[in-house]
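Hello Y.,

Per our agreement to keep a running log of every chain we model this quarter, I'm adding this entry. I've kept the format consistent with earlier entries: sequence first, then predicted structure.
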Amino acid sequence: MAIALVSSGVGNQSATSSAVTLNTVGANLLVASVAMYESKSGFTLTDSQGNTWTALTERHSTGTSRPQVQQFYCLNPTTKASHTITAAATDLYGTVYVHAFSGVDAYNAENGGNSLSDSSLATGTITPPSDGSVLIAVGAIGGTSTETGAGTYTGFTQAAFSAGVSIGLTVSYYIQTTAAAVGETFSGSTVARAAS
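Predicted structure for the entry above:
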């Protein structure tokens, strides 16, 4: 079965939590991308269906606004037509973006980078182990910046940085037919950033 995007959506931005509700029926992979403040404490990622989420590597900057980005995934989740995923923490200042895909067999690899202050940041390249894979790139922005993506990724979305409210988030995905090395670069004005 070919991989397909079932649904996706961005949550509200706030100092303590970010939640998104979407229809996940038919999906067998959920990926939550969270941009947040580096010094957050008591972080949790939960959903209304009680699924267990696997955390990937934190990518963070040491800049003034200290943006951090982290991805989480859930393979073969319990789904629902009105499914809410919530990221919460003390000093979260975050945004959550969720992708729901069908036709996915397994999770395989990750890559990423971080920068104190730069005008662009690459996620690093990934070579999927087989044809027919989905790749997701996410970046966290610690300042005012209009982001653009480069390369073959699509579905580019941005939730802007808001001082005192949230770290900014950029996200895109790529459904690859033939396995090959591919990466994403997020570019904008010179700010602290992190990417995965």
